[in-house]
Write a structure and sequence with these properties.
globular; 12 strands; ten-stranded mixed β-sheet; Rossmann fold; 14 helices; alpha/beta; two-stranded antiparallel ribbon
Length: 496
Amino acid sequence: MDGGLIKLLAPQIPSLANTTLWHTLGMTQTSNHWDLRTALTVQVLRSIMSGNGHEPSPVGKVQASTLKDPGVKGKTWVAKATIPAPRENQEGIRHAVFKAIDELSNGKPEYTHPNLVDTEVEWTGFRPNAGNNESMPNISEEEKYKRLMAEPTRTSDTTILYFHGGAYYLCDPSTHRNLTSRLAKESGARVCSVRYRLAPQAAFPSQLLDALMVYLSLLYPPPGSLHEPIPASKIVLAGDSAGGNLVFALLQFLLHLHRTAPTDSSTPPLLRFHGAQVPAPLPAAASAAAAWLDISRALPSITHNEKYDYLPPPNHSDATARYPPDAIWPSDPPRGDLFCTLDLLDHPLVSPVLADSWAGAPPLFLNTGEEMLTDEIKFLAARAAQQGVAVEFEQYQAMPHCFAMLLPGLPTSVRCVRAWGEFCRKVGEGGGMEGWVGETKGTWVEARTGREEQREVAELSDGLGMEEVRRLVGEAKGKRVAGFEGEAKTLPKAAL
């Protein structure tokens, strides 16, 4: 055990001992559902997320601790590449995104108008013959990509475009390699993980611009790219947590583009990209694990499911002031949320749970534990199904946020990634949304036994309607604005 881990765990020894005792005696709320390893893991994560009882660390320090690349070892191929931004005529993509933000807004929101930037990606594949701690060979990125593509386990032409989680200000693809490698194995596909810009340094819509640019670059590779052109019928959007938010924000943007395009509805709308007018088709499918779909964190499960989760509870009246100042926070100009201006908390490209329509969307796959974000995930799944979209939904009893990544050895985690991979494989084999042969279905998976029950996806919202969701998010936004104004009464309007 290294010194850093000892330093992290030492203050938690008393609480871990207490957790062990009460869990073993069956005296906790989760004893009937969790094994001891899960109970201890969640306890450690709760302590970290709450600051170990100390003052919270500055955002920059927390972010830096998650950006250390541990290197690539084990049964994973990783080939790194840079997706170049257009050197001229960036306005096609930028204008389309800014126009969609304005058209989908209730008022006139103020937000940054960032440029496109070069964006790094990691091509990931399963490497079956490597040892668990074996490093990749010392060869060029081009050769790594060729070997990844030549693996006999890559049995599908599908490409999974993956957006990592981490609350938009933590992590990068390196922290998700184990998960994306497993997803590649179960799907037989290759995964392209995007190193999008992180908040708070880059505010919304920087991340949406990055996602759109990489998506278009898969379709229309710039010169020097490792990959050949990939048809939209072979691209599945995927992500977890904040990355799941980005999946559905990108999909909602593309749907809006199609709805409002002046051309014939049978022809994809055009965007100017690297000097050419190119079609912007919908992807074959979209999928997410534990998607964070309501940035305001306003729906009932945020408090009702605390006992199964490690995420910190929301504090709508003091959501950002608790972070000590450092080089990256507060932002300049100041704003009331790490990710976006408070103006945009209830915008459907920021909080996709508020999107009016998913009609016309490709097949969707969503899974969740019994976590704090469950209500927003169930609501989006139900609304899409009610509007005629094919939806596969899975819920895992008593499981915490992103359990399949954090607890990969659990039988429920193995099942979760396998089902996700099978969905991606099925989409690719069907030739995309036009050839989809699946059906809308919902599955509840029991924690201890793995027993499955079928659920009606269109009825998952548990009585929550769009009017009630809008009311709850609006109330949370109002508290956030009031709290922020109380901290900084002299800040300019743009900070809100």
